[in-house]
Specification:
homodimer; alpha+beta; four-stranded antiparallel beta sheet; 12 strands; 24% strand; DNA-binding
Chain lengths: 232, 232
DNA sequence: CGACGCATTGACAGGGCTCAATTTAAGTGG
DNA sequence: CCACTTAAATTGAGCCCTGTCAATGCGTCG
């Protein structure tokens, strides 16, 4: 199973399969079906029946929640090793969010029944899953509080820093956020409008804190953003 | 174990122990330590080391997340059968929120090691826990979106309806929300200020939709609130 | 090179937060 | 039972942040 070995990296092990005997890893993975996604392709659609859950192998997905009047909120970005649509563990539920590949991505899909059986036979896996969900919950609780208590500028700063930590890549200019990120998307993630994001980034660029291009953002002075995000 | 039988009600069974053989229920519960809480008493404090997790037996708790500059957000209200501080499943973490009894309450506390062991030996329990967490996550994702997309009035309406469903009690006047709920608390739950809540409730009272007293709110016309919360 | 999508910038208005001043209601102790 | 205290709730006035709308600029790709 050479294809599987390729995904058998540290990040991955630290998540769903950590603590599970290595001998059975391949067996477990063989239960999933590999799916390749093009940039922008929708993997799950909010409201559809939840029949499968997915493990991200490579690339990056975004989870978006849609509101009646056209607005949308980016709930989270997912990277390799993370699981989504765990809701499929419950019977007769609908996906609460839409999941979409940002750039190209690969995922492993597990049927609802399959994953339930796997979790029951490998309790450690269930515990790992619990940990991942706790992570998600914690993250969202934090962002909920920020949305409640902070002004837009602070939220944008915090969001950029978060994205930097999860998906930053060092360049000579600074830390580049390593996937397509338009003003609109950052606005959806920060819970504001593209206009405000644009204005803010422009201001920060004048201060020399970031460098912003079309769908690309490089943070040149992270410390300034940290300070901004923490000042009352 | 007569004390335990008292808590062995439907709600409870539908959560943590559903699907687990009945013979072992008492054994499992015997691993927990019963704790009685006075009104307002703090059970867990944000930032403390997470050593135990808790199952609510009776009464009602609120989970609050504190922000540096004094603001706070009520993340969730917990009723009988619900679990909190599941974070204790992870090693070396701190509680991300504060949990406080609203009126009198009883909980069952499980040591971190104990609950881990229980979940490993009873995989069905781990699955149940997963389901509860998925519920929490879903709830918060919805509220995050609402906070993002809706105006204050709609959010207050939705919050009241939610509280009504979870903790409503029929009276001759309408549906009473059955625990102490000040303007400030509703504001913290809805992510607004007590002033705005007060103004809004006053207006609704004039319209005959609610009846508001000191720390008590009765919904006399739920339908009006539903309509308000759903209109674009 | 033209067209389309992304980004920028300005003008404007309004929702709701802030602050301050009362009013109302619930306890408390004599 | 009544004065007194204290906390909750109400209401008004003002203003600021930020969303909205419109016009324009710019980069990229067919």
């Amino acid at each position: 199973m050479t294809a599987l070995e390729a995904y058998d990296d540290a990040l991955f092990l630290n998540n769903l399969l950590s603590g599970v005997p290595e001998q059975v890893h391949a067996d477990i993975m063989a239960n999933g079906k590999r799916i390749v996604l093009r940039p922008g392709q929708t993997l799950i659609r909010q409201g559809d029946d939840a029949k499968r859950c997915y493990l991200v192998l490579t690339g990056r997905l975004k989870l978006v929640k849609l509101h009646e009047q056209g607005k949308e909120a980016v709930i989270r970005y997912l990277g390799p090793g993370q699981v989504t649509a765990a809701i499929a563990l419950l019977k007769q539920k609908e996906y609460p969010v839409t999941a979409q590949a940002i750039d190209a991505a690969e995922v492993l899909g597990f049927e609802s029944g399959t994953i339930n059986r796997l979790l029951l036979t490998h309790p450690q896996m269930a515990l790992n899953m619990l940990r991942m969900l706790l992570d998600r919950l914690d993250d969202l609780q934090n962002r909920y509080l920020e949305l409640r208590a902070e002004q837009v500028e602070q939220r944008i700063a915090r969001s950029l820093l978060r994205l930097m930590q999860h998906s930053g890549r060092r360049t000579e200019q600074g830390v580049l956020i390593d996937f397509s990120l338009s003003r609109q998307e950052l606005a959806d993630y920060t819970a504001t409008t593209l206009y405000t994001v644009s204005r803010t980034l422009s201001a920060w660029e004048k201060s020399g804190w970031v460098k912003s291009e079309r769908e690309r953002i490089t943070i040149t002075d992270p410390h300034a953003l940290v300070e901004l995000s923490e000042r009352s």
